[in-house]
Write the C-alpha cells for this entry.
Amino acid sequence: MSSQHATTAPLPAETPGFFDRAILAPAIVSAFKKLDPRQLMRNPVIFVTEIVAALVTLLFLRDLLFGGDAGFSGQIAAWLWFTVLFATFAEAVAEGRGKAQADSLKRARSDLSARLVSGDAGGTRTIPATALAVGDIVIVEAGELIPGDGEVIEGIASVNESAVTGESAPVIRESGGDRSAVTGGTQVLSDHLKIRITVAPGSSFVDRMIALIEGAKRQKTPNEIALSILLSGLTLIFLIAVTTLWGLAGYSGTVLSVTVLAALLVTLIPTTIGGLLSAIGIAGMNRLVRFNVIATSGRAVEAAGDVDTLLLDKTGTITFGNRMAADFLPVPGVTEAELAEAALLASLADETPEGRSIVALATGEYGVSNPSFAPDATIPFAAETRLSGVDAGGRRVRKGAVDAVLRFADIAKDAAPAEFRAAVDRVARTGGTPLAVADGQRLLGVIHLKDVVKPGIKERFARMRAMGIRTVMVTGDNPVTAAAIASEAGVDDFLAQATPEDKLAYIRREQRGGRLIAMCGDGTNDAPALAQADVGVAMQTGTQAAREAANMVDLDSSPTKLIEIVEIGKQLLMTRGSLTTFSIANDVAKYFAIIPALFVTTYPALGALNVMGLASPQSAILSAVIFNALIIVALIPLALKGVAYRPVGAAALLRRNLFVYGLGGLALPFVGIKLVDLAVTALHLV
Amino acid sequence: MTLIGWLQIAVLFLAVLVAVKPLGLYMARVFSGERNFMSRVLAPVETGFYRLAGVDAGKEQGWLSYTFAMLAFSVAGFVALYAILRLQAFLPLNPQGFANVPPDLAFNTAVSFLTNTNWQNYGGESTMSHFSQMAGLTVQNFVSAATSIAIAMALTRAFARSKAATLGNFWVDLTRATLYVLLPLSVFVALIFVATGLPQTLDASMTATTLEGGRQVIALGPVASQEAIKQIGTNGGGFFNVNAAHPFENPTALSNLVNIFAMLSVSSALVYTFGQMVGDRRQGWALLVAIAILLIAGVGAVYWAETQGNPILASLGLHAGGGNMEGKEVRFGQAASALYAAVTTGLSNGGVNAMHGSLTGLGGLVPMFLIQLGEVLPGGVGSGLYALVVFAVLSVFVAGLMVGRTPELLGKKIDGREMKYAMLAVLILPAAILGFTAVSAMLPVAVASIGTPGPHGLSEILYAYTSAAGNNGSAFGGLSGNTPWYNTTLGIAMLLGRFAYAIPVLAMAGSIAAKVKTPASGGTFPTHTPLFVGLLIGIILILGGLQFFPALALGPIVEHFAMLAGQTF
C-alpha cells in the first residue's frame, strides 16, 4: 500500500533563471500554440496585431505572386508575427516558471492511493486518491502519505509536512481542536489517523494555484480588466487615427499601402504592455509561491497591494509566544546578585518557558553560575500552587505569583515592604507580570516578566508606515498591557481584550470607511474574520476552516509574511503601471519615425520631422516595427522580475517611476529606432 | 513679440487669477444649496420656478434620471429653437423681414446652439431676426451653458460623496446655474460692454452718410446683452458674422480684454468650485495650474508664430508691419489676437477676433490642437471641467498603478467601469473629427467647399470638424460651410461631441458616487502636487492630442515647414 513513496520534495527555493533551457524549449512550443486566435482573443491588443500580421502576410503573398515590393512587405509581415510571438512567448515563459515551481508541489501529490473506509463494518478498500470525494473517510497508517486535504476525526499522529512546508520537524495532528487539519501529500510518521476528506481532489490549494498560473484558465483580475479596457480603448483610437489617415493622405495625393498603415497601427497600439500583461500577472503569483505562499485567487494578490490596514495577532507575530524574564528588582537590603541567584534556584525545577527564561536571564545577563550542590527537594511549578522552588541546605527558596509567594512567606499583603509593592505596581502598570521571590520568610524582590517584542519587528512596522499601511495589534490582553506592548512594538493601534467577534466588527468598520484589511489567522474562530478581510492569510498549520476561509495560505506559517505579501501585491501593480506608461510614451518617437516616412515624397518639407535622420522611408518604417517587436523581448525579464518596490511613500515612488518609465519611455525609442535603422541600412535589408 | 504685448497677456491672466477664488467659492455655495448674498433677491424667484414647473427641489436624482432629465430638456430646447428658426418670418420682432431659415441650416444652427458650440453657418445680421436672436439663440446661450454646468456639478458631487445613490437634481442645478451665475454676471458684463461702446437697441440698423457722401446701412441690435452671455457661457456665437472682430462686438482694446476675461473666468472658477466641493482646494489649484501652463504655452506659441510672420514675404521686402497681420484687426494687434485665439479655443468658446485661417501655419495649428486636446483649457463652462476630470481619471489610472495601488482619484478607486466610461468619452473626439474629416477629404461635394486647395484646404475641413466635435464653434474661415453636407455632418459631429461625451461622463459619475471615499494615506498617489500637474499635462498631450498628429502633419505642420522652405500652396 505504502510502496509508492513519493519523494517529499521541499518547496523550490531556487528560482529558475529567466531563460533556463528547461523552460525555454517548452515555452517556444507553447508560444506557437498560443497563436490560436480563439485563445488570443482574450488579449485585444495582441489579437489585433495578429489579424494585422495575417493581413500583411496575404499582401506579401500577393506581392510575391503578382510582382510588388515583396521584400519589404515580407519583412514587415515577419516582424509583425514576431511581435505576436514575443508576446505569447512572454506568457509562456511566465507560465513555465510557475509550473516548474508548482510541479514539485504537484509531484508530491501524484500517484497517491487511498484506503477508503467502506461500510459500517470498518472494512477498507484501496482506490486512487483522485477518485476521492468530499466526505469520504480514509485510514492512513504510519509511513503512508495522506491522500487528500481533510480533517482528522480519530487518532493522533505525528506527521511530516515538509512536502508542503519545507519544515523538517514533524508536527502533531489529532482529532478535534486546532490541529485537526491535514494536507494531501504529507506523510504520517507514527500511529494512524482516520481522516474525513474535506476538499475534492482538484480543488485543493495546490491545484487551485496551478490553475491560476496556467494561462488558459486564468481569470483576469479587476485591475487587469480595467487596464485591458484602457488598452482596448487606445487600440481603437489608433485604429481610427490610422484608417482615417488613408483618406487624408488620399486628399493630399499620397496613396498609402495597407502594409505601411498596418506597420503604423501596430507600432502605435500598446503592444508592449499588451504583450506582457498576462506574464506580469503570472509572475506575481510565482513570486508569492517563492515566498511559500499559495494564493487561491489572483484578485487577492492585487488586493494585497491596496491594503490599508494590517491586523496582526500579538502572540507569535509581534511578541514571542510567552512571557520572559526581563529584570530582577530586589527589595532594599538585597543585592541584585542575591536575588538573581535565588530566582535561579527557585526556577531550576520550573520547566515552563517562563521558568526557563528566568534561568537564562540569571545565568546570562546576571552571570550567576548554576549551583554545584544537589537540592534536597524540588517543588515543580503547578497551576494550583503557582509556585516553584527548591529546598537545599536549609534554604527554602520559592518564586511565583506575588500573592502565592506572600502566602508562602506568611507576609500579609500590606505588611510587604513599600518598595516591594511599588515594584509590583510598576511592573503591572507597564503591562508586565510581576513574580515574587522569597527565601523562607525573607522577601527578596520581584522578577519582571514581560512579553518580549521580537527583534526587528519595530523596523518592519516603520517600513509599513512608510508604505502608508497602518498596523493594528490584536490581543486578548487587558488594555494596559496591550498599550505597553503596542508602544514598544510601534504599532499604530491595538485591539485589547479582543474576541473573534470584535475582530470581525473591527474589520467591517474599517471596510465601511473604505479601507482594505489584511489579516492572518489559524484558528477556527478566526475563520469569519479571515473570510471578511480583503486579504486573509491562513497558516498552513491552522485549521481546515481557517484555510478554507482565507484567500491565501502561508506554508511557512509565519504571521509576518503579510508584509512580504503586501510588497508583492504592490510590485505587481507597479510593474503594470510602469510598463503601461513606458508603452504609451513610446508612441511619440514612433510618430516621428513613420509620419515623415509616409509623406516625404508628397511633401518634401515634412522631412524636417525626421529628427532621427533615418535613412529612407522604408528603413524608417521597418526600424520602428522591429524596435516595437524587440522591446517586448527586452522587457520580459523586467515583467517577470517586477519593478523594485521601495517603501518610500507614494510621491517619491511615483517621481522615480515616472522619471524612469515615463521619460525613459519617451527617449529610449528615439535611440533604439535609430540604432535599428543603422543596422537595417548596414545589412541592406531594404 | 513686445513687452507691451506680453503685459496685455499677463494682465488678463492675473485678472482671472484674482477672480477665480471668490467666484469659485460663490458657485460652490450656490450648487451646495447654501445661502449666499444673492439669495435674498433670487431665492423667491427660484422657488417660484420650481412651483411653476412642479419640481421638488429637495428630491435628488440618480445618474440615470439625471441623464434623462438632461436629454429631455435638450430635446425640448432643440425642437423649440428649430421651430423658431423655421418660422421666424411669421414671428414678431423681425424688422428686417428675414425669411424663414432653410431646414438644413436651421438644423445645424439649432444643434449648434443647443450643444454650446455656436458654430455659425450664417451671418447673424443678414439671417436672424431679433426674435430668433433673443428668444431663440440667446435662450440657448444661457441654458446650454447651464446644462454643461449642471453635468459638471453632478460629477463633482460624485467625488464629494461617499456611497451615494444620487448626484443632485438636474432641474435645480439648471435653474441655479442660470439664475445665480449666468444671469447676474451677464447683466454686469453687458453694462460694461455698453460702457465700452457696444450697441444695445431693438433698432435694426441706422443709415449713415459717409465722408464720400455715400449712404451706408449699419446693422444694429441688442448686441451687448448677447455678447455678454456669449462670453460668460463660453458660447462664442457672435451677433455679427465676423464675430468679435466687428467693431460693434468688440470696439476697443479694453472691451477685448473684458471679452476674454468674461469667457475665461467662469470656466476657471468652476475648477476651483470643484476643489472646494470635493473638500480639497489644492486639487482645484493643481488642475488650474495644469490648464494655465498649457494655455499660456498656446498663447505664446501663436504670439511667437505671428510675430515671426512669413519669411517668404520678408524675403520680398514685405515685412514692414512686423510679423503676420493678415486677418487681424489693427486695434488689437498680434498679442491680443494671439491671446484671443488661444483662449477661445482652449475654452470651448469659439468667438474670434481674428481670422484663424489667416494665421501662419504654426499659429493656425495651435488653436486647432487646443480644441483637439479635448476642450479642457479650461474648456467650456462645465464641459471643460468634466472633460478635465476624465483626463485626471485617465492620468491616475495610467500612472497611479506605478505607486503600487489600485489607482484612485480623490479617494475613489478607479476600476473597470470608470475606465470603460472614460475611454468611451475620450474616443468621441478622434472618431468624430478624424472620421468626418477623412470622409469629407475624399468626397468631391465636400472638397468643393474648400477655400484654398492643398494642405490649407485640409486644415479648413479638419478645423471645421474639430470645432464642431469639440463644441467650440470657431471657424478657420475659407470653408463654405452652409451646404447640406456640412450643415448635416457638422450638426452630427456637434451632437456626438456633446451627448456621446456627456452621457458616459454621467454614467461614470453614477459609478463613482456609489463608491466609498477612501481616506488618503502615505501610500496614496497624491493628486495635488507639481508631479501630478506634469503628469496630467503629459496625459492630455499624449492621450488627447497624439492621435491627431498624422492629420495635423498633412495640414498646418506641412504648411509651416513648407513656408520655411519658401513654398506656398
User: Anything to note?
Assistant: Chain A touches chain B through 78 residues (CB under 8 Å). Confidence is low (pLDDT under 50) at residues 1-14 of chain A.
